[in-house]
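The instructor's notes for this session suggest beginning with a concrete chain rather than abstract definitions. Hand out the sequence below and ask the class to guess, before any prediction is shown, which regions might be ordered.
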Amino acid sequence: MQFNDYIERKQREYGKSFDPSDLNKSFIPAFNSGERVTVDFGYEKKRGTIGVTSGWKPVFLLMLTKRSRGSSYTIGKDDKII
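After discussion, reveal the predicted structure:
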C-alpha cells in the first residue's frame, strides 16, 4: 500500500478525528518501497521494514521481520534512517 492511499483510507474511516501529525515524513519513501532500512533511535540502531499503527493518530513502526506482531519499535520525530 502506498502512503497516499493509506492516508485517504484513514481519512474516510476516521473523518476529522484522523491526525497524522506524528508520522515522521522522512520515513514515507521507506514505507512506500517496503525495503529493509536501518533506523537510528538515538540509543540504538535496528533494521527492519516500516509499517504504521492503526487508529486515528498513527505513528510509523519498525517491523524487525515480516512476521513481526506487537512490540515493534515506534518511530518518533527525531529518529532517522541511516
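Then share the key points. The longest strand covers residues 45-52. The mean pLDDT is 92.
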